[in-house]
Amino acid sequence: IEARHRVADLYKSTMQDSRIILPWQDPEGHSAFHLFVVRVNRALVEKSHSQIFKELHDLGIGVNLHYIPVYLHPYYQKQGFVPGYCPEAEKYYSEAISLPMYPKLTERQQNKVVTSLIKVLRP
After folding, report:
1. CA 90, CA 83: separation in Å to the nearest integer?
2. DSSP secondary-structure letter at 8?
3. Contact (Cβ atoms closer than 8 angstroms) between residue 116 and residue 23
4. In 3-state terms, what secondary structure has residue 104?
5. Neighbouring residues of 31: CB distance < 8 A, sequence distance ≥ 6
6. Is 122 exposed, middle or buried (0-12, 13-18, 19+ CB in 10 A)?
7. What is the Cα gyration radius of the chain?
8. Are strands 36-40 and 20-21 parallel, antiparallel or unpaired?
9. Contact, 23 vs 122, CB < 8 A?
10. What is the β-pairing status of strands 20-21 and 96-99?
């Protein structure tokens, strides 16, 4: 957990960009930083979520998404659920990007993640 906190602290200190919303942490809590999820400021970024992911993957950045609203999965779509059912969940889904987060992530690797993310989010 201590190593994950070092990784999270470096992310927080190097991602001072208005297009990126950093994860909020209760000052009285102590996260294990199982994930490090940033959010894209949709008011400042016109690219689609899938376009951002593709461009990051093309740059060798293994980003992921946690989580797709359950009712948007094909099984639930067949049950009659449609987009718009939970607008806040869909908003989060359109903004969230899980960045690489593991204890042995090096500063050099993190810097590549951050510079790639900022590059991709630029117009």
Report:
1. 8
2. H
3. no
4. coil
5. 8, 25
6. exposed
7. 15
8. antiparallel
9. no
10. unpaired
CA angle, 9 as apex, 88 and 55 as ends, to 5°?
A: 55
Give the contacts of 15 (CB within 8 A, at least 6 positions apart). Answer: 22, 38, 114, 117, 118
pLDDT for res 123: 84
- Closest by Cα among 44, 43, 65 to 54: 65
pLDDT of residue 75: 97
DSSP-assigned letter for residue 24:
P
DSSP track, 43-73? TT--S-HHHHHHHHHHTT---B-S---GGGS
pTM of the model: 0.89
- CA 13 vs. chain centroid, Å, equals 16
Helices (H), ranges, the chain: 2-14, 49-58, 74-78, 87-95, 107-121
Predicted confidence (pLDDT) per residue in 42-58, tens digit: 999 999 999 999 999 99
- Residue 12 structure tokens: 């927080």
| 3-class DSSP assignment, residue 38 | strand
